[in-house]
Every structure is written in structure tokens, then in C-alpha cells.
Amino acid sequence: MKTLLSKLSPYKSIGVCVGEHEISACKTASTPFGPVAIALATEPCSADDVEELIQKLLEPLMGSKRGFPVAVGVPPSRLYFGSRVIPANAETTAESLLQKTLMSTTISVEDLTADMLVTTVDKVNVASIVACRSKFASVVVDSLAASGVRPRRVEPLPCPLLRKAVATKGYPRRAKAAVCVFLGESQGLAAVAAGEQPLAWRTFALEAGKEGAAVVSAVRTLRMQSKNYGVDSFIEHLVIHGRPELHERLQEEQLPTMIGVRVIWQKGPAFDCAVIAQNLAADCLKPKKNAYDLSRTLKGRAS
Predict the structure, then answer these.
(1) Which of 145, 259, 270, 271 gets the highest tally of CB atoms within 10 A of its CB?
(2) How many CB atoms lie under 10 A from the CB of residue 296?
(3) d(CA 136, CA 294)
(4) Which of 74, 75, 72 is nearest to 14 (CA)?
(5) pLDDT digits (tens, 9 = 90+) for 238-294
(6) Is 206 helix (H, G, I), strand (E, B) or coil?
């Protein structure tokens, strides 16, 4: 039934995940039973062929129709991300806050494209800034334009994972802040989140047999850094997503005791490029008001 409804649905969208070593594109249709992935493709990539591969993956998904909304996820290695407490009612921009926090003699703010979201954690305003080099963001936007597409948004790929995690049954929605860990085959992602809003994140390698130590190290580092944005005392939950075959062993290794917070175990979503592309496409079917868009100043006006 879902397959039939997905073919008949007029509402379709595409998500593109630009990973560290691969690019995935997923086409999704809206149905009464929820989003359904109707096509998925993945290609290995390097830093030099991102533009070519995005066009290659998009063409068969777009077909003759070019009106589908498209969202793109960008890997953490391409981004600067930071969160800072700001005074109540303070007027600031992503560029001005980035200028204050990015202390570098080799990177100019003019060479970056940035966006900012403000969230409230226990009545404290926290601004989170994301930025990437304009050159890389332009490559992504130009590759979409070559296929006749104006992107809905270009955002950090941890964001769609967090939105999916928060929507999962069993997530501690009443928690002021939580640490979410997403496990993949060879890499993981840990993020401090206030609801769907990431406040900090960290990627880490997953070596076979040493996954527990890697998770503990990443979570402890994030908790130490969380003092910078005033949420350290509010982190009471750790939610681990993906790689369910590891969960029993991690419990036997006393991972919850070493971290010192309540641990919630979830089967998904995993830290996987194809999974992220599917989540990006599904989010396009229900537009988000509070979402980063690194293409905001680079794409043409909407018709």
C-alpha cells in the first residue's frame, strides 16, 4: 500500500548528504502513513568531485520535473560550530558573533558563509553559530543550480539526525539538555542537544572492540565544554542510537556507570550517509522554521 501511495503522491522531496568519503541522495514521497523513500543512491567521493557527483546523483532522481524541494547536509569536518550564552534581548548577527568567537589569523569572516539560531536553555539564551567556507558552499549551490534546483537549505548533517532522534519514541523530551550519540560502521557522532537544537558536537572513530572507550571519551569531552554555554548541570540523559548489536556489550562494559548519567538505548538512526539523506528528504516535506541554511546568501531569489 505504501509503495502504491508513494507513486501517486504529488508531494516529493530529495535529500543529499555530502559525507566524508561518500555522497548519498534519497527521493522521498509523502503518504498518509508517513514519508516513504522511493529511490536511494550512494557514490564514493573525494574533495575534488563533489560538484560532479551531486549532479550525477540528482539527474535520475529529478527526471523531467524540477520542482522538488532539495536539502543538503554538510559534514562536520567542513564546518565551524560553536555556542555561546548571550544577554537577553541582545541584538546580534551570525557574522558579528563569529567575529568575536573565531580567533584566527588565517581565516577571514569574509571568506565564510554563516548562520545562527538562538535557543533557550533553562531561561538562558544560547546562540549557536555554524559557518563554512563560501567556496565550498558555492560548489554545492552551483552543482544544484546546474541541475535546475534551488536548495531549500544547506545545513550541518548532525541536524537531521537530531530531529529524527527527538521524534523517536522514548526520547527524554522533558530534559533540558541531553547527549545523543549516533553510531556508524567506523565512525560516531556525539552531540549535546536542547530539543532539536545542537549546542555542540564531536565526531570520533569507532575501532572494533574499543567502541565503549571511544563513546566515553567523546561524551566526557562534550560535558567539559558544555560549561561554556551554561548547560553542564542539566545533562542528565545519554541517548545512544544505531548499532544495536553493540548495546549489550556496552552495558556489560559498565558504560552507564563510567559516564554517570541515565542511558537510553535506541536502534536508530545510525550515523550513516544514506540514513541522513533520507532524513533530509523527509524534513523537506514539512518545512522547518528554525533550521540552519548556509546557502541563504548564495542562492537566487525564490520564484
Answers:
(1) 271
(2) 15
(3) 10
(4) 72
(5) 999 999 999 999 999 999 999 989 999 999 999 999 999 999 999 998 877 789 999
(6) coil
